[in-house]
Specification:
The protein has 233 residues and is α/β, with parallel strands linked by helices. It is built from nine helices and seven strands, in the order ββαααααβαβαβαββα. The radius of gyration is 17 Å and the shape is globular.
């Protein structure tokens, strides 16, 4: 993990109740959810299996162990989970080596958070090797902390990644805003007690108490996130 924990004077944004912002990576900041599905389809094609499009909603946003394990189970592919994990990460790393497109509004939002010295963490279910490659595009200096799925005992949909990020930044989870694109990530953030902005990328996400659903990061800025924290739960 990388971290540069800010001085106490930077732990609030413009004197607001917002203490930190946590952002998912795939499908939230970078347009890579489709890449993962393409890679999964390619790897299973090499193994002699065709993936059903209906399975995409099941595996999106999940940790590698859950997604890969599910695909092994439904296809009956003759491969172990550790073997498949290596193949998927290798193929995905090669795929993003050609470039990683940002989601609309991502660069602007990150720049605004950095300009106002808001502690910001990248919290992803992807493995460290993948996050480090994507950070070459996003910019390491845009994040106070990054948390990878293979660096916590339990990753999303469990709350551990977000609780870990809040603890490392000395923030109260309920005063942290989370931006996620999948139901799995939303479940993790809400279980941690954070306020959530959902920006669905593949499957729809319904609004709920303590959660706001928007169509794009273009609708999200520091003022929006601050309002999310201060509104009644």
């Amino acid at each position: 993990m990388t971290s540069t924990v800010p001085a106490p004077s930077t732990r609030t944004a413009e004197g607001s109740a917002l203490q930190a912002v946590f952002l998912d990576m795939d499908g939230t900041l970078v347009d890579t959810e489709g890449f993962w599905w393409e890679v999964e389809a390619e790897v299973f094609a090499d193994l002699g299996h065709v993936l059903d499009e209906a399975w995409r909603d099941v595996v999106v946003g999940g940790p590698m162990t859950r997604s890969a394990g599910y695909l092994i189970e439904v296809t009956g592919a003759d491969i172990t989970l550790p073997e498949l994990t290596v193949l998927l990460n290798d193929r995905f790393e090669k795929r993003i080596g050609r470039g990683v497109p940002l989601m609309p509004g991502a660069a602007r939002l990150l720049a605004e958070l950095a300009a106002h010295e808001v502690p910001t963490a990248l919290v992803s279910a992807s493995h460290r090797r993948i996050i480090d490659r994507v950070l070459e595009t996003l910019g390491r200096d845009m994040f106070t902390l990054t948390v990878a799925g293979d660096e916590v005992p339990r990753t999303k949909p469990h709350p551990d990644p977000y609780l870990h990020a809040a603890a490392r930044l000395g923030a109260d989870p309920w005063r942290c805003a989370v931006v996620e694109d999948t139901a799995t990530g939303v479940a993790a953030a809400e279980a941690a007690g954070c306020r959530v902005v959902a920006v669905p990328s593949v499957a729809p996400i319904a609004p709920a108490r303590g959660r706001v659903v928007v169509g794009s990061l273009e609708e999200v800025d520091l003022a929006f996130l601050t309002t999310l924290i201060t509104r009644p739960n």
